[in-house]
Amino acid sequence: MTRTVRAEFDERTVTVYQAYRPEIADPALRAGTFVAPFKRDRMTWIKPSLLWMMYRCGFGTKPDQERVLAVRLWREGFEWALAHSCASSFDPRRYRDHEHWRAHLAESPVRVQWDPERDAAMRPTERRAIQVGLGGDAVRRYVDEWIVSVHDRTELAGELHRHHRDGDHEAMRRLLPVEREYPLPERIRTVIGGD
């Protein structure tokens, strides 16, 4: 399985996705960042892959995940999160033993995990998609410093869902953003266990 970060990005920003209930999404859209009732003391997971987000939230049909948001971040913030991350489960390629991993887990404000990426038919592929969990100081940085803008992608999720139900995967592909391999410094690729 290939582990590369793929995302929609430009020279300064990268787009990630989250899904929330309307009570959290609507204030975030108005404020341009996350505000109450969003809870800063809980880990929040961001996903650069739109298709993986669609799989995770059931195209916005799962309870408390009805609103799909595209969040544009400064690339510096995204890379800070990856550089300060720890795998959410033990990976012998990155940690010498469970004790070393647990110590790193306890001090890191960020978790990463790799899950099978989805294709337009929502089947798992040989590629892995990264999820990034932000906790502690990383949540504060995310909300107060890294977010450039928040956009509602709920309507897009609904269109993708309709095409998926109809089996029209080509129509789905046409609606998807262009997600390319994100250029990571070697040291960050090593931290996240990327290829």
From TrEMBL:
Pfam families: DUF4291 (PF14124). This is DUF4291 domain-containing protein. The lineage of its organism: Bacteria, Bacillati, Actinomycetota, Actinomycetes, Actinopolysporales. InterPro entries: DUF4291. It comes from Actinopolyspora righensis.
